[in-house]
Amino acid sequence: MTDRATFGDFAAAAQEQLSRAVWQPDPGISHPGAPACGAEEFTHSLHSLVTVMTRYSADVETAIARLSPDSRRQMGPWLRASSRTREALDNAAAFLQPGPSDTRPRPTPTTPAGRSLAAAAAALRTGRDLLHTHTAARPGGTPADRSEWAPVIASPPVTDAAGNARRAWLYAARGWDLITTDTRGTLSPAAAETADLALWTGRLAYADPAWTPDLGPSRTARPAAQLTDTPAVIAAVHHACETLTQVAAADHAQLTAAARTGRLLVPTRSLPEEFDIPHRFAPAPAARTQPLLTAYHDARTASAQATASTAVVAETVRSPSRILTTARTAVASNTSTTSLRPDAPLAPAASRPGPALPGPVERILRDLGETSIAMLQQATAIDQAAEQLILHTAHQPDHPARPATRDPSRSAATAEVINHILTSAHPATAAILCAPEPAHPRNLKK
Amino acid sequence: MNRITAARTRLEQARDLAGLLAAAYDAFDDMLAVIRCHEEHAGGAFAAFVLSATAAANGRDWVAAAPSMPPGPAPARPAAPAGTQPAEPDTARTALAIAALSQLLAGLLPAAAADAGDRACLAHAARHAARIHSLLAGSQQR
Questions:
Q1: Nearest CB to A214 within list B29, B75, B134
Q2: Which of residues 42-71 of B touch A (CB under 8 A)?
Q3: What is the ipTM of this complex?
Q4: Contact check, Cβ <8 Å, B74/A269
Q5: What is chain A's percent helix, strand, coil content, to nearest 5?
Q6: Chain A residues close to B142, C-beta within 8 Å
Q7: Cβ partners under 8 Å of residue A175, min gap 6
Q8: Is there a contact between A273 and B58 (Cβ–Cβ < 8 Å)?
């Protein structure tokens, strides 16, 4: 007996998921006239499943090809079965393959059947990875100086999702290159926690248990052979992904509020000369705040997808972090929103209604200590009227698509108004106000 | 002469506080740009490069906040001459060059402050420069 997962566990998990897909058909694909999205994602998920089955079949053919002629003759009907299975799977994969003109990214399954098929494909893929680890270790008794679970961790869905999250967070970090806040010099509790997260995950990745970033870049990575407690390692990765998802959501909400209230700043030294601002810092122009907000939205989506991919592995290896998935399922059962499913990315923060933050005039009145409801309502009306006037002007039929070669938020006074519109109005409507980022020496090709 | 070398030369040739502040601002900005160019190729040093970029942006903003720094947009800088970048980025050499420049900044900035306001801002900027140095060169190499 062993606590470690075996190939049989993955096969059983796949079988269970396939049973669910069969016995719980989606209304979207079983009833005529139902939305086509169910059929489309079912086809995508089925294609993933058939693809991994094709790889199993190819493995069998490869193994058979290595046999001696005598051994192959003894296999008799199994040879034909293998050949015909491979042919049938190849045909199925070809029929399910999206057309060449369909370059859209594959959607995350949202229907029960689509999710079950995707989970079955993931289980079979992970099981195959495990099998390949064993077969790779046999010839010549290759030393076990690497984790047998390395291929599990490096399985394509997890690797792809982690890579996407890494890229998304890097874009978010780059968004800060040209922006600062009015709290410069203070470390928020969230930032401190994030630094701790980097420290502790770094200590998993590096051999030195006392690793810190200040030790410099040339440190030895932890040998994979040391990572023998696979469920614990997966739990660490799972918790890190979950934390990043929450951090991205919180950061996006805070940034949206900061942009609305003019608290995202830029050094005026970094602005083009046509900006006439007699201060060292000014509210960030829309062309700089909007990419930052988009980057955090994308980071949240990518982190949620990495969490969902890791959750599949966590379930398979019986990691203690499965509690995260259980908790999400419990939350989802108390809501009717599909966005809280454990295997689906969270809805973008921007798509949910945010708190009604005051516009510039209302905020000034509040800063002056005004509490009269009538006065504050009048200030709100002035803010809204100003925004409507600006949007109306930007939408004039004979107005150029890019309204200005000069950024409408090029002064300290206007930047706050424009940013408030950008975070309040519909994105498509507000986008017309985003002037392209002006050329800056730092952006010139080096 | 590449961008980092040019920034170092400007710093060393600065004759007054205004010149030093302008050169320091641009040096942090140049380090940030060069780090961003190399971070994707940094391999195991990826985290060190990304954290260094954050420190460079913070250091630049602290220099910008110094009371002696003139407000408003900076005069346009000439673009770097073509052909000054190596075809294949050498991440290790770049890290060492940036670490050396940040070490110079960490030493120059605190001593340059004329009044308390400048002193506070430049002390912060110097700390960020020192952090870049430790991240890219290793302050506690064992």
A1: B134
A2: 42, 44-45, 47-51, 53-54, 57-58, 60-62, 64-65, 69, 71
A3: 0.85
A4: yes
A5: 65, 0, 30
A6: 215
A7: A291, A292, A295, A296
A8: no
Distance from C-alpha of A22 to C-alpha of A28, rounded to nearest angstrom:
14
Residue of B35, B61, B96 for testing the chain A interface, max A β-carbons within 10 Å: B61
Dist CA A82 CA A40 (whole Å): 30
Instruction: Tell me if chain B has a CB within 8 Å of the CB of A104.
Output: no
Residues of B in contact with A199 (CB under 8 A): none
Q: If DSSP codes are grouped into helix, strand and coil, which group holds residue A221?
A: strand
Looking from the CA of A148 toward its CB, the CA atoms found within 13 Å total 21
Q: Please list the pLDDT of chain B residue by residue as tens digits (142 residues).
A: 488 999 999 999 988 999 999 999 999 999 999 999 988 888 778 888 999 999 999 999 999 999 998 887 777 776 655 444 544 458 888 899 999 999 999 999 998 887 888 999 999 999 999 999 999 987 544 3
Q: What would the two tokens of residue B12 be?
A: 């060393």
- Chain B interface mutation, best of A199, A273, A280, A443, highest count of B Cβ atoms under 10 Å: A280
- Report d(CA A93, CA A85) in Å as an integer: 12
Closest to A51 in 3D by CA, of A121, A128, A146: A121
Tokens of residue A376, six digits = 């504050």
Question: For residues A444 and B79, is the Cβ–Cβ distance under 8 A?
Answer: yes
CB A85, CB A57: distance < 8 Å = yes
- In chain B, the residue whose alpha carbon lies closest to the alpha carbon of A218 is B45
**CA pair distance B41, B34, nearest whole angstrom:** 12
Q: Can you list the positions of beta strands (E) in A288-378?
A: none
Tokens (6 digits) for B24: 């320091």
Q: Give the N- to C-terminal CA distance of chain A in Å, as an integer.
A: 61
**What is the three-state SS of A86-117?**
HHHHHHHHHHHCCCCCCCCCCCCCCCHHHHHH
Closest CA to A384 of A407, A362, A353: A362
Residue A283, helix vs strand vs coil: strand
- Both structure tokens of A61: 């053919």
Kindly tell me the burial class for residue A427, based on how many C-beta atoms sit within 10 Å of its own C-beta (0-12, 13-18, 19 or more): middle
Interval A26-78: pLDDT, tens: 554 444 444 445 677 778 888 888 988 988 888 778 777 767 777 777 677 77
| Stated pTM of the model | 0.61
Token pair of B54 as six digits: 């954050």
CA separation, residue A23 to residues A26, A167, A213, A422 (Å):
9, 39, 52, 47
Residue among B30, B54, B140 minimizing CB distance to A215: B140
| A364, A279 contact by CB (below 8 A) | no
Q: Which of B72, B131, B136 sits opposite A277 (nearest CB)?
A: B72
> Comparing C-alpha atoms, which of B78, B133, B139, B73 is closest to residue B108?
B133
Nearby residues of A293 by Cβ (< 8 Å), 6 or more positions away: A252, A255, A256, A259, A350, A423
Helices (H), A154-229: 156-175, 189-205
